[in-house]
Amino acid sequence: MIEFFQHVVNGISVGSTYALIALGYTMVFGILQLINFAHGEVFMLGAFIGMYSSRYFGFGEHPSLWALLAILALAMVGCAIMGFLIERLAYRPLRRSPRINVLITAVGVSLFLQFSGQLLFGSDPKFFPQVFQPSGDWTLGGVRFNPLQVIVFCISIVLMAILQTIIFRTRLGRAMRAVSFNHDLASLMGIPTNAVISYTFMLGSALAGAAGVLVGLIYPKIEPLMGTMPGLKAFVAAVLGGIGNVTGAVVGALTLGLAEAFVVAYYAPTFRDALAFIILILILLFKPTGLFGTRRTEKV
Amino acid sequence: MKISPVLNTFTRVVIATTLSLSLAACTKKSNNASQDATQNAAGDTILVGEVGSMTGSEGTFGTSTHNGIDLAFKQINAKGGVKGKKLALISMDDQGKPEEAATAVTKLITQNKVAAILGEVASSRSLAMAPIAQQYKIPMVTPSSTNPKVTEQGDYIFRVCFIDPFQGTVMAKFAAQNLKLKRVAILRDVKNDYSVGLADFFTATFTQLGGTVVEDQAYSSGDTDFKTQLTNIKGKNPEALMVPGYYTEVGLIARQAREAGIKVPLLGGDGWDSPKLTEIGGVAMNGSFFSNHYSQEDKAPNVQTFVEDYKKIHGVAPDGLAAMGYDAAMVLVDAMNRSPDLASGNIRAALAATKDYPGVTGRITINEKRDAVKSAVVLNIDNGQFKYQTTINP
Amino acid sequence: MSQFPLTHPGGAHGFVAAWKWLAALALVWILQFTLVGDLDPYFFTILMYAGINVVLAVSLNLVNGFTGQFSMGHAGFMSIGGYTAAFITLFLAEREPALLQGMSGELVFIGVLLLGGIVAGAAGYLVGLPSLRLKGDYLAIVTLGFGEIIRVVILNVNAIGGARGLPNIPALSSFGWVFSWVVFTTFVVWRLVNSSHGREFLSVREDEIAAEAMGVNTTRAKVRAFVIGAFFAGVAGGLFAHYLRYLNPQTFDFNRSFEIIIMVVLGGMGSISGSIFAAVFLTFIREALRYLKDSGITQLDYRMVIYALMLIVLMLTRPNGIFGTREIGDLLPARLRRGRLPQGRAEGIIR
Description:
The structure holds 3 protein chains of 3 kinds. Chain A is mostly helical. Chain A has helices at about 1-30, 40-55, 65-90, 100-120, 145-170, 170-180, 185-190, 195-220, 230-240, 245-265, 270-285, and strands at about 125, 140, 145, 220. In chain A, strands 1-4 form a two-stranded antiparallel sheet. Chain A has a two-stranded antiparallel ribbon with strand order 2-3. In chain A, strand 2 (about 140) and strand 3 (about 145) form a beta hairpin. Chains B and C meet through helix 1, helix 2, strand 2, helix 5 and helix 6 of B and helix 1, helix 2, helix 5, helix 6 and helix 11 of C.
């Protein structure tokens, strides 16, 4: 029985890392209906920015909470800039192009970042400096908690709440919702659609950057290809929760994390990566709007 | 207007074929490839081809091997080369893909007319290359392809490393006889033929020696979270955990194993041999054991010279793959020296007759299956350092 | 916006035009028996891969170009076909080696290729149906994931070698077979897009809602295009397996799918000759880049970075690729083009 609860804890802790990535994914999709394939790569860049900056400042030798917050801020700013550039250079010129062209561009951006990452950083795995090490193990009735993962779980819940507030309680959020509903109409109403889309991208990318640092801290092996799988799984999580829905993304990610843990624990560990896609196909078959999604009507 | 049907769709085929034909005419083969190789060797250089994964996700493996081979060639040339001729190495990158390795080896043999082939690191690529080398009767020496099927491809294919069955046996013997363990759990990498092979042969021997494999879990290289597998393993209370994967994942596995409360030593194979292992794994790696081709602590003069020279050029200590690359090149050179001339058949015969060659990775004897017979060492990880533990003979 | 199909009205000829395809086939086999044996082996290897890539690119173009759906799992279907075909020939090689000799070997080969194609097509149906029913870009992700699932499954099945791969596959792929399939694939795709089915595919690409309003069953059209594409990918896998003589799951990773995508996009989504050209060009340029690397100009592998950048730049500047939806025939002087719509670019009129 202890093992079962341990699997639950493991699943939730993996799920909360997916949640961090899925939040950004779902926001960008919500506003542009674009699968931003490059999101996983922004996540990877976040990890590398975190690694290089903490090496530069020597945080690895002097771990502290402030060091963590400092590199988190750096990675978030760096990724926000990256997100802005990606949107400005690759997606904005295609705003009026057929959907498939935008999709191809998104794949292109993702691969470009992956392969230039391999050239820039080298394809060998790198060690992520341990800038923050909470002491000791937390145990509860034989079930072990990794303190870092508890922190990540809390951060993803807090971020979800913040995003929810931004989207539903602020002017920017209202503008986002308007743009998401209809670009042309929104711009007729005087909403600077391009600026709103830029903000959304930057916000989403900053979240990915934060995820990169936190994941790097928990799994201190980073490499240029590390973003691909988590990126895809985060997308599946977002679809599972109802794409475009912030709460849905977190719930979807935790569900996926749990499902993976159980498949690994009780069925076949090697099917972990396949599971996400099987879930995706099942969701598309039976409830394409996801758990929390609302149906959009297609307009001519 | 009547000519048009020929000209819209059919044109494409015609253009394509004429294009290829004209190209083909330029590159028509002139002669038998292996004869050319001998002729080429009659010049003042001997060309040797190398195929490796210099880029891609396994780029670090190919690069290490290349560094080892390169060092060997530099040393031989500094001493005057082979039979009065300089050695020249032509390296090809296959990006870790079997089909690229096959194309590269075809090019090396038919275009560059190399006298011999060195490579590949991984069995999956060597298996794609071997039939081609065999077809043209060009000797191929693989530094570290451990799958038994590689040398079964033909009598021109050799290796200087031990094969999976032996290495799996080494760790099983070490666990059962030296560490006196009874209960071992396995965590294997199903994406890697090497890891699967090692795990299988470990299980076979360890069971034979009276031990039990209490749990056999799996992961795929590229994974980062292993806690669930480790939770299952912990439930079985093993006395050691066998992780026959590559260092890229083992470091993380060790960390998470300690987090999950598994305090027993980890066991592994030569895939662990890299400074990255202890960098990523940190203190979690301490107290673990792995089998390897050689130990840098080995006091033998040739090992010490090799380690020194390698450090001089590359700034870091050689890992296992670099040592294997070095030995593959040296065994080939040794065979070329013993062979009466540089005809591929004679090099092959000389390679097959290799006996007790003192390589840096041990005394190498090539058996009738063209596999190297040599001893393995077991290293202990102590405070981030790889310490020599014991030698296990075949 | 609209690149309507009026530029390929060749379908009007019906099967009268079939002779030229037969002539092309005959040419392939004449070459097989005369010239091919003398080809330089390295050049021959590249040529064979070029042929296999043409089959892959042309069949993917049917899905990505003509139907406007974005599949990223072509390598997955290729692996299904390749493994199916290779598994059967390996089985036969063990039980009935005589069957693989001479003429019966050729017959067996064509049989296993078709079977591999059919299994791949069936897999295409299973994957395509749920994802193609929906609007949006789900197909991209599902096919990408499908490629992964296939690899995971292959890795876990010991009978087909798992991570060890499948060595010693009989060498049955010849120049004749590969290029016969090049001709046949081109023929089928060409005839298809110029038939009423093809018009359905194109209408789905241009405007799904309008197509549905015109009574086109868009899901059916998409699934059809997808299954046919998967079939030919499976055949290409079989050809590949029996040429390389060794299969390994890592051959069919996402980069492989990506290479085929770039062939289609570079050549022009909706141009068969564009796909052929791009497939041949990219196969050969890869070897040219190898020389560049050998000569020590660069030790780094820029190829994939260049490909990715090319994809972005193409989409931004010339989204229709080099050929657009044109065929090579369209480049001929107008008077030589019989049956082509009134001179001048037909699409210009629609616009």
